[in-house]
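Local shape tokens:
==================
===
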Amino acid sequence: MRKTFLFTIGIALAAYLVLPMTGLSSSLDSRIGKARQQVQGKKAQEGVLTTQLSRYSARIQVLRGDIGELQQRQDRVQVSLNAKQTELIRVAARHNAVQSRLTILRGKLVAGRKLLAQRLVALYKDDQPDMVTVVLEAHGFTDLLDRADFIQRISDQNEAIVTKVRGLSHEVGMAEKRLAGLQVQATNARNAILTKRNEIAGAKQTLVSRQSDLLAARNVRASALAKVRATRQRLEGHLGDLEAQQARIAARLQNASSGISAGPIRRGSGQFIWPVNGPITSGFGARNIGAGNEFHPGIDIGAATGTPIRAAGAGTVTLMQPEAASGGYGNFTCISHTSTISTCYGHQSRFGTHVGAHVSQGQVIGYVGCTGRCFGSHLHFEVRVNGAVVNPLGYL
């Protein structure tokens, strides 16, 4: 009776340990899925913020280029301004020289006009003798010549005075016009240069202000990005805790699982049989897991820890590596079927063969586990052609 009671208790305890604890497992799976979604959401926000920061950075670089171009333009204007200022100095010197000469000419013009006025008054008061009067009043030919020469010299003198006054007036007028033109030219140059410098200074001030705004916005975006990253890292830590908890549950199942049957051999349309019976939990190729994208070189087949693993085909065991040597693959076995085709089996709880062994198709070579980089009990299965991984589904 006591033996029967102990046997019943043992059967119940074994059944409890072997059962996958459906409620706990499904709750963990749900929480892990939700945590992964949250991590992906934060990553998406990081991507958006990073893109925005890149746009702002590019815009800042453009503005810096504009500022540099404007600075070069300002330097060119400054060179032109210096040249204009040098020119204005020369013009001022010429202006002073012309102004001095103009003062002298004006003095001469005043004196000439005064002399001309006196001559005109004298001519008005004393009629100038004509040639008939000179001939009639001459006392001989010599006197006639002297009188005629005197009259001619008076006439020439009057003409010279008039010509001199006219020339001085013209020269004074030209000098005044020249000075006025130089003054206008200098004033226009000063105004144009001042306008350009003000325009460049205003544009530069605007760009500097805009750059400050953009840098401030960049700091805000960077702060937002830092917050999102911190949240994402916290969520990833939470996800890691959940996955570790799931791994611990798998370990409990592993310890409780013994004598699990491999079940019937599963065949497909390919040359290999399925090494274990179970669903594909992760396919071949690119996948998103943990902190980023990665390439999955095989397929993951879900099975309980301790499930026997069959050789997918007949061949020779060429590689067996324990978890410490293979890293993420855990306990790892590879079988060469031909000179070009091999199959590999990862995350085994323990080995069932040895290197150099010739195995037949369907022979047990190990047992399912969760060694290496693993978040739950499963078999990682690979097919390699000439050493390169290919999709195993084409061979099953």
